Structures are given as structure tokens and as C-alpha cells.
Amino acid sequence: MNQLTAEQRQAVLQQAQQEANQRIMQDMIQKMVKTCFTKCAGTSGDRLDSREQSCIASCQDQYLETRDQVQKSLQQRQSNGMN
Amino acid sequence: MAGWFGGGGGDNNGSDNSTGDKSFSTGEDFSGGGGAAELQQMSMMLQQQMLIQQVINDLSDRSYEKCITSRPSDTLNGTQVACISSTVNKWLDTNEFINGRLGKKAQQQQQQGGQQY
């Protein structure tokens, strides 16, 4: 690392950031799949039927909203703490 | 498989492994170049393997919980086998379904935020 120029170092850091973001995204998707699967999937048949699909669609939308709300709550708390 | 563990490292002077451009190396190959690319490939491969194993572990757990609900016995009966197949397939479906929808949402956002059609 010591032999890199400032530019190269920047590029490495950026890539690390991108990879971290990707991993976080993947982590979220995995959790979302798990949660909605547990909630909506039955045990008969080898494909999701239309009822299960719409259940999962709703679950997914609510999950994403929940995540948004969680972020907002955290931000709120942080800004409250600073006053 | 042995090649990944035996052929890695920085000593590229004599090997035919590197398919990349050697023009950036001035003779000493230890500072990155081919060695780093190989390491990265190996790392990615290991990560993929890990991922697959994790999925298998997770699905096994999931299938067991969902499907093996009666008293433990020596083998699985037909209903249980069908249930496991169902669980695995629906799981893969769910993955596809959710990722597909996320992709569509991302596309929609791009279209809204970018050019106006």
C-alpha cells in the first residue's frame, strides 16, 4: 500500500466502499427473502402460486418501507441527541 | 484445485499462468500485478463456494423445520420428500421473484430520475 500514489489509494478505497455497499445490499436482500418466504410460502407444489406471489410482493414492499422507517428513526434520534 | 494453492503468489517470472498484460511490471513482480489478480480470483472462488454451502445449510434447516414435523424416524417418507422439494423450489422462486421486482423498481427509479420520456 505504501507504494501507491494518492490517486491509486483513493481508487482502492473507493472500490472497498463499493464492495462494502454491495455486501450490505446483498445482506438486506437475503434477509428480505428469508422473512417473506417464512411468511408467505406454503409447502405444496414446486412453484409459488399466485396467492403466495402477491403475499411476497406485499411483504417485500412493507419490508422496504420498514427499512426506510428504521433509518429515519435512527436519524431522528441522532439529531434529537445533538440538541 | 491444487493449482490454485500451488500456483499462487508473486513469482510470475517463469510461469505461464498469467494471462494479463505484463507491461506494467518492471521485473519485480511482488508489488501486485499478476499475483494480486490470481489471489483475487481464488478469493472469489472460495467466497462462491462458501455461499453455496451456506445456502445448502440454510435450506436444510428451513426444510427440516417446515417439513419434518412428526416424530423422528429412520428415513423420510414420500410426503416429507415432496415437502422438501417444495421448500427448495419455492425458496429459489422467492429469490428470483424478489430480485426481479427489485430490479424493476431500480429501473423505474432510474427512468424517473434520469431522462423524461
TrEMBL record, chain A:
It is a peripheral membrane protein. Keywords: Chaperone, Disulfide bond, Membrane, Mitochondrion, Mitochondrion inner membrane, Protein transport, Translocation, Transport. GO terms for biological process: protein transport. GO terms for cellular component: mitochondrial inner membrane. Residues 14-76 form the Tim10-like domain. It comes from the Eukaryota. InterPro entries: Tim10-like, Tim10-like_dom_sf. It is found in: Mitochondrion inner membrane. Its main location: mitochondrion. The keyword Disulfide bond applies. It holds the Pfam family zf-Tim10_DDP. Mitochondrial intermembrane chaperone that participates in the import and insertion of some multi-pass transmembrane proteins into the mitochondrial inner membrane. Also required for the transfer of beta-barrel precursors from the TOM complex to the sorting and assembly machinery (SAM complex) of the outer membrane. Acts as a chaperone-like protein that protects the hydrophobic precursors from aggregation and guide them through the mitochondrial intermembrane space. Heterohexamer. Belongs to the small Tim family. The twin CX3C motif contains 4 conserved Cys residues that form 2 disulfide bonds in the mitochondrial intermembrane space. This is Mitochondrial import inner membrane translocase subunit. It comes from Fragilariopsis cylindrus CCMP1102.
From TrEMBL, chain B:
Its main location: mitochondrion. The keyword Transport applies. Residues 1-38 are annotated as: Disordered. The keyword Protein transport applies. Transmembrane segments: none annotated. Residues 1-12 have a biased composition (Gly residues). Residues 13-23 have a biased composition (Low complexity). InterPro entries: Tim10-like, Tim10-like_dom_sf. Keywords: Chaperone, Disulfide bond, Membrane, Mitochondrion, Mitochondrion inner membrane, Protein transport, Translocation, Transport. Residues 41-102 form the Tim10-like domain. It is a peripheral membrane protein. It is found in: Mitochondrion inner membrane. GO terms for biological process: protein transport. It comes from the Eukaryota. Pfam families: zf-Tim10_DDP. GO terms for cellular component: mitochondrial inner membrane. Mitochondrial intermembrane chaperone that participates in the import and insertion of some multi-pass transmembrane proteins into the mitochondrial inner membrane. Also required for the transfer of beta-barrel precursors from the TOM complex to the sorting and assembly machinery (SAM complex) of the outer membrane. Acts as a chaperone-like protein that protects the hydrophobic precursors from aggregation and guide them through the mitochondrial intermembrane space. Heterohexamer. Belongs to the small Tim family. The twin CX3C motif contains 4 conserved Cys residues that form 2 disulfide bonds in the mitochondrial intermembrane space. This is Mitochondrial import inner membrane translocase subunit.
